[in-house]
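Weekly sync, protein design subgroup
Attendees: M.S., D.O., the rotation student, P.L. (late)

Item 1: inverse folding check
M.S. brought a backbone from last month's batch and wanted to see whether the design step gives back something sensible before we order anything. D.O. pointed out we never logged the input encoding, so this time it goes straight into the notes. Structure tokens as presented (79 positions):
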């Protein structure tokens, strides 16, 4: 399940892979973050948040609860 053109200055797209409980976040300025062990309810909260960038930064990225991997990519405006 992928959501593109996310209405956020920080986030370009999010994707959730049910079988792995994997949340994939692609940022507007480049970089893809994969978060492991994320409940589907957390994905829904991020997707429908009034401030997705704030929700992502404070409740997913910086909370230390989820193991993650960062993959560098070329920023979207250059692609």
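Designed sequence read out in the meeting:
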């Amino acid at each position: 399940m992928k959501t593109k053109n996310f209405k956020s200055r920080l986030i370009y797209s999010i994707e959730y892979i049910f079988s792995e409980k994997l949340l994939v976040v692609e940022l507007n300025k480049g970089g893809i973050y994969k978060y492991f062990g994320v409940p589907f309810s957390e994905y829904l909260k991020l997707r429908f948040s009034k401030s997705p960038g704030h929700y992502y930064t404070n409740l997913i990225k910086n909370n230390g609860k989820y193991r993650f991997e960062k993959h560098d990519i070329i920023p979207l405006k250059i692609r």
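Discussion: The two ends are 23 Å apart (CA to CA). The chain is about 25% helix and 30% strand.
Action: P.L. to compare against the previous round before Friday.
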